Amino acid sequence: MKTSIATVSLSGELPEKLAAIAAAGFDGVEIFENDFLAFDESPRQVGRMVRDHGLEITLFQPFRDFEGMPEPQRTRNFDRAERKFDVMQELGTDLVLVCSNVSPVSIGGLDRAAADFRELGERAAKRNLRVGYEALAWGKHIHDHRDAWEIVRRADHPSVGLILDSFHTLARKIDVNSIRSIPREKIFIVQLADAPLIDMDLLYWSRHFRNMPGEGDLPVAEFMSAVSATGYDGYLSLEIFNDQFRGGSARAIAVDGHRSLVYLGDQIKRLNPETSLSVPAMPARADVSGVAFVEFATEEQEATELTELLRILGFQKVARHFSKNVDLYRQGDINLVINMEQEGFANSSFLLHGTTAYAIGLKVGDAKAAAARAVALGAEAFEQADPHAGLQMPAIRGAGGGLIYFLDDGPDLGRVWDVEFTPVGGGEGGQAAGLLRIDHVAQTVRYEEMLTWLLFYASILNVRKTPMVDIIDPAGVVRSQVVENDAGALRITLNGAENRKTLAGHFIAENFGSSVQHLAFATDDIFATAEALKANGFKPLPISPNYYDDVEARFGLSPEVTEKLKLYNILYDRDEAGEYFQLYSPTYGEGFFFEIVERRGYKGYGAPNAIFRIAALRRYLRPEGVPKD
Hints:
Layout: E1 2-6, H1 14-24, E2 28-32, H2 33-37, H3 43-52, E3 56-63, H4 73-91, E4 95-99, H5 110-125, E5 130-134, H6 145-155, E6 160-165, H7 166-171, E7 187-192, H8 202-209, H9 220-229, E8 235-238, H10 243-246, H11 250-271, E9 288-297, H12 300-312, E10 316-321, E11 326-331, E12 334-339, H13 345-353, E13 356-364, H14 367-376, E14 381-382, E15 395-397, E16 403-407, H15 416-420, E17 421-423, E18 435-446, H16 450-460, E19 464-465, E20 469-473, E21 476-484, E22 491-497, H17 503-511, E23 515-523, H18 526-536, H19 545-555, H20 559-568, E24 571-575, E25 578-584, E26 593-600, H21 610-621
Parallel strand pairs: 1-2, 1-8, 2-3, 3-4, 4-5, 5-6, 6-7, 7-8, 9-12, 13-16, 18-22, 23-26
Antiparallel strand pairs: 9-13, 10-11, 10-17, 11-12, 14-15, 15-16, 18-23, 19-21, 20-21, 21-22, 24-25, 25-26
Helix pairs in contact: 1-11, 3-4, 5-6, 9-11, 11-16, 19-20
């Protein structure tokens, strides 16, 4: 599978873009005309730069407002085309993109357009060049790839072909199956882009909100399946117009782009094993059966406060690592590892971020296969510096530089707690409070990183993403989106902070990067758990009494239930599937906290309660100087 990306997709100047594209593993690059015009080297030198990076120029684009023009514009357009052909030959590329005309003076008619392209094809053929025609979704006369194909068919010239762009087809909800009948040799290149579903002007939507395949809501895989059915085996190229990407890291966006194409190719290969696309072999997305553990990086002095909080929550210290300063705390199926080592990766993480939940262990069917897929999709593998320090769990670097470990039921990894840890007797810890398992892990990330991590998780793990939700903080908006699997064994909420005045933004700033901000533990009886926690000395996050007056009226709760919620500071929500109860701890360190939840069929995450939880946290933290509104 040959991959390409348009220079317009990335931030920076042309040399920076080319370096990022090559480093990400692309085979080719589309040169966007403005990037070339703004650069002060000759086209021949630009072509040499591209080839020195090991890349091929797949396309020069765009050539606008060509077909169906009256005189004298028609003659001038052919003169313009000749000048573009000069540049192309100097650059060392043979394909130019001609997008459908949007000029108000253009004249419609398929035959008129076909005649223009036939003549342009003749001129291109004399230079061994090719012309690709693309239907813009907002074209004046041609805004459907089916009409563009009819023009190419009527032009009937070997140097004139079709360029397909997923956005232009999917934005107009055109039947992608119409692509299947197009001869593959007439498809000169395929451009791919996804986008969130937004009801807005097509041009504005396209120019500001495109994203990588798999990051949005458009059925790009269906589009690509139809393309694959033609036998097409040429370049898959990304053309992404996105304000956020233009201000982000060129290297990070390029890595996301390459990952999105490899993931898309893998999807197509699994839908159609006979596809002509040469797709890298990799294991299937990993099915996650649970969060095996969460590991905290800390040091002994700070660990005292953390372990006291765990005691109050009802966790018991059950084991100690056979050779490291690492303890295991457990309650139900929840395993929390406290790493107090003074060297190694955990210590480096502590020195940089302070006490944080820096690593997550996921239980999968085949740990090595899960790690292999992640690496095939561009993730960075992680190995312990000391290979003799115990079991080598397959691991990759995750959000904010943290780690994701993979465990399975194999003879080694299935016995990790027995092999790596020595049991500790004596009941060091609090009275169990009925916490059963990890309900969800909440990661706070920079807003511009959200799409990266959504794609990261969705491409490696067998999960789906939920619609984005706005969480209202008095100091701004935090965007929240969830990746979860059907069984509910893995739920990761991603909260994107745009400014440091929000609590999420403050957490990122104080921890120097994205990280796990809270863990939610599940119980089957929230009131019994709240009473047990109270007996252990737990002090919940105090919720405003005004909240309970409203929740009683909103959901029609009985005064007795409302008073019970109020007594324990429990938040309540309900959806069409059932009820949800939430109990929060105050914050620990720079904003980390715990949550206890009970689901009675409920599918969500209590988003309507977030504003009340944030307000309560602000009241709790205000004496310490957390940013005010």
